[in-house]
Amino acid sequence: MNEAARFAPSAEATADIGGEIHALVSRLFPICRSITGEGVRRTLAILSEHVDVAVREVPSGTRVFDWTVPQEWNVRAASIRDASGKAVVDIAASNLHLVGYSEPVARRMPLSELRTHIHTLPDQPEVIPYRTSYYSRDWGFCMAHREYLALDDGDYDVVIDTTFSDGSLTYGEVFLPGETDREVLLSAHICHPSLANDNCSGLAVLAFLARALAGRRRRFGYRFLFAPGTIGALCWLAANEERLSRIDHGLVVSCIGDGGGPVYKRSRRGDATIDRVMEAIRCDGRKIAMIDFSPFGYDERQFCSPGFDLPVGLLQRSAFGTFPEYHTSADDLDFVRPEHLASSFRMIMDIIEVIETDRIPLNLSPKGEPQLGKRGLYATTGGHKTTPDVTMAYLWVLNLADGRHSLLDIACRSGLPFSAIAAAATRLEACGLVGDAQA
Amino acid sequence: MNEAARFAPSAEATADIGGEIHALVSRLFPICRSITGEGVRRTLAILSEHVDVAVREVPSGTRVFDWTVPQEWNVRAASIRDASGKAVVDIAASNLHLVGYSEPVARRMPLSELRTHIHTLPDQPEVIPYRTSYYSRDWGFCMAHREYLALDDGDYDVVIDTTFSDGSLTYGEVFLPGETDREVLLSAHICHPSLANDNCSGLAVLAFLARALAGRRRRFGYRFLFAPGTIGALCWLAANEERLSRIDHGLVVSCIGDGGGPVYKRSRRGDATIDRVMEAIRCDGRKIAMIDFSPFGYDERQFCSPGFDLPVGLLQRSAFGTFPEYHTSADDLDFVRPEHLASSFRMIMDIIEVIETDRIPLNLSPKGEPQLGKRGLYATTGGHKTTPDVTMAYLWVLNLADGRHSLLDIACRSGLPFSAIAAAATRLEACGLVGDAQA
Amino acid sequence: MNEAARFAPSAEATADIGGEIHALVSRLFPICRSITGEGVRRTLAILSEHVDVAVREVPSGTRVFDWTVPQEWNVRAASIRDASGKAVVDIAASNLHLVGYSEPVARRMPLSELRTHIHTLPDQPEVIPYRTSYYSRDWGFCMAHREYLALDDGDYDVVIDTTFSDGSLTYGEVFLPGETDREVLLSAHICHPSLANDNCSGLAVLAFLARALAGRRRRFGYRFLFAPGTIGALCWLAANEERLSRIDHGLVVSCIGDGGGPVYKRSRRGDATIDRVMEAIRCDGRKIAMIDFSPFGYDERQFCSPGFDLPVGLLQRSAFGTFPEYHTSADDLDFVRPEHLASSFRMIMDIIEVIETDRIPLNLSPKGEPQLGKRGLYATTGGHKTTPDVTMAYLWVLNLADGRHSLLDIACRSGLPFSAIAAAATRLEACGLVGDAQA
């Protein structure tokens, strides 16, 4: 069967996939998530409407490598009220207002004391920052600096109605088995509250990708991971340690719905196949910006730790920390756009197409160029100043199909997109000029 | 014998070699060439006045790898006349007017029909383009777009008096044997009609090079090939398949008479000796611009196909397709200049000098620098701010002559021209400071 | 014992080391040095006040590889007087006035003859150039071009009261043994007369470094060489040939007191450890500019000759030949500044710290990141846009501490200074997260 044809644009890719993904982002956005608790479970429940998510629960207190699963944290209410009883901050307005994992508080205090628990961004006075205190017992509120400056002196009633309890950490996993036992890992963190790009976008795009892949033949198995950052990824790694050697390629996906980038951060190895795939694909016709691995970011930090060193990179539109909306209330439903979500969806589908269809072609007529014209693959009139890319793709495949270059190698060396090289190889195979070096 | 001295500037190089080459270009220019026919034979006959050309004839219909030698095509006349009998296009004015390999026509037709057979360049309305249709039966005319727009409505008498016949494809070969059985290939395509730079220039420069080399000692054998593009090169490859392994270095030479560049396109291997030679020589004191191999261009496409993968690059002044005169009637005898032809001749002689004289020197006094001053190789007064290149060449040769670096290696690492490094090595050998690592 | 702590800033580094070094430069500056003679001995005597210098004498006429130690040259007086007896040039004013190794002269001569022995810099008319004629018997004076132009016609009395005698070449050596038999070579040329940067600065900085290192534990032995350029270095190489294999790292130090650079010229090997060390250290927070080896400069020419090929680079502030004061009377005590001398001293101490403390760390918790927060190594509040360098250093060490990367490797790959990486490793070791891969 023709490999390339298996991954031709599907109904999913051509319909209003961007609108559908954005609708899912919009449903996930309001949920108050953290690294444990009901927010994660509600999120996984919504994702389960699209794909068959296996929900895993890891009990509080479980030792995971150097870590311990923390107690489950849930929020009922959180507010600051002034002396008149008016709420100056209320989590009902934005769940960014409460520092993640804040301990319960119910106390009146003067502004001077309250201030030591308030986080703002003086340089961005209109937006609420996002802060957490997962592993150090504390409490706090986040608010717009402009509103913070407007607080009157006096006493405030602080209520943080949160619970810590022995429960569990929750993560979700979708596995689509392939024809071989080799696997591709696609991971998105699920622990952030109302931040649309970081990472409702990643969750939603991966859910639609899983749905799209479910109905196709797959050489590789695909493992989708929706887990809380760091501790969730570590739980999954601990539970799957003996099968990690099956993972040939992986991507962490976050901040995938804005209009920047795309930017790809290479795996720790730096020359993994996934790293080279990213050079050979295009997003809306543009090359992907590449940056080297560094041990900071999302869960590639865990996957690429020296004890695992998996071939996993990080794919984003705008790189984390580089856009002003990052980790603020400005990372909202307007910041992520259907067209960017659709473009990211297509880009990852193209990545998967490379992974699925890469092969080593063999030129069956390697002495000189074969006569392409008589096969309808070459202009009949000669003398033009330039050569179409489609012709160049034929010539590159023929020139490098010596049994030592894969289609991916040929794409990287030629500078042409993998899709153009793969299409040329398929056409040349149909003409009998190229075969399979591994056959 | 001193290797460098063997290639000191010869009488050819110092006389008006540019004028002589241009005169040969001028004789070749008017001939109506194609991939077969009398034009190629007349061209080879003129080249034979300068060097001993072996003329090869390959019968029409011969299978050559994936190709078949086409019928021989000859032209007697070709014109378009208006109703009054006035020739609006006539091959007598320029043999670019006729599309190469046009089939015979003798028919009156309206302008509307004629138009579908006319090729022009709307962006360059004053010049005639060059077009061919070798492998697809068709006919056509090329003309200046300005004249095309001036054609009146009405009927035209089209006469194309061409013949297709079982004959042969013709190519020429000059072989100058060397002291060893290793060979250098120098190839220029002979199939283009009246285009001075592309490639009367290549034919003429190679003819003079062959004449200049004929009278010298040669470590390598030199094989000059004057063959029609693609099919001619393939004929030669097929006839010489068993001896291709003798070829250590090769150059395809085209567009070598204009004032641009020079530009060198690397071999498919990318790190062949010829590729490194081009970094170490200079043309009129300037470095050669380098571009990577791509499987489009001239007959390096065939020599570098995966079944042969010969160490052959492409040497040009302006790269094909990049200058406005390319494949138009503006590529005429004014576009190629004697000074550029002479400079290209010297450049290729310098390339050959590197190939002939490269060797691995051995510093016989490797502990510390030897005292160059007492041998007259160093300034007697010390303290100057800068060091002359000639001194730097001595120091580089001494420093790298450890038996692991050739003169070419030393030139590339030092950034000095090979000629300077070779001269320094020769002088150091004369002083007994350097010997031959291979002796 | 903690390696990093051994090289914590010492009293030397924090006191007014710059002022002390500049005071030593000021004492060395007026001495009339050459490649032999009393000037070198007086210089070594002053250096001996700071460190225990072993003074070596190599008799005139000794064969040293391709060279012969020249006769000892000493100067009593040198002047040019006009007809009125007025000194127009006198070595008492500047010992640059006399060309080094000038032969004795006592003769009246017309200006026309005198002119052929006068060296000036027309482009820098106010300064006296520095010139030598070590190995070719000659004599000459150097003077400011402006004064040269003001010379009246007429006769002049030239007196050069110099002596050539069988004596010796003198060099000094300081050796501080280490715990192992591996050695570090630090070399500064001692043959230049009154040039403050080139190289009173190098001599003085190395003397203070030797003094600072003398009181510390040292893994490596440190060999400081104060030798005349070329012939002095060759004498040392000849005398130490059998022990050169002990040298793991080396630096030639010159022009180390001005405000430019720093610039490091790599060793001939190009990838020696010392070459990589220079990428990982900082000078006043800035990276060191790197240039490739070339066989011209100071005594790295001898150390890096192919018969020795030692891992020795050249460290400077402004690179020789690139600053207008180079080899002129403008290279004076104002051109070198205490703050630059102190900065250079600290930079070389930092280099030595890398050499002494580099090691291969091993992450003892390699599966995922260990939990840094519970060890006080990570911010307790999460969500910030940027990460402090100190955190990045922990993460880089942990990520690359797989037993295949040294601290130096980690510094180079991370782009962080070695000092930051080493401090992070030390802290992680204290926490039990990192051990020694070689233990």
UniProtKB/TrEMBL annotation, chains A, B, C:
Tagged with keyword Nucleotidyltransferase: no
Keywords, in A-Z order: Plasmid
Domain spans labelled UCP01524 winged helix-turn-helix: 360-434
Coiled-coil region list: none
Ranges where the DUF4910 domain occurs: 22-358
KW ATP-binding (keyword) present: no
InterPro entries: DUF2172, DUF4910, UCP015244, UCP01524_HTH, WH-like_DNA-bd_sf
Domain DUF2172: 72-163
Superkingdom of origin organism: Bacteria
Gene3D superfamilies referenced in this protein's UniProt entry, alphabetically: 3.50.30.90, Winged helix-like DNA-binding domain superfamily/Winged helix DNA-binding domain, Zn peptidases
Protein name per UniProt: DUF4910 domain-containing protein
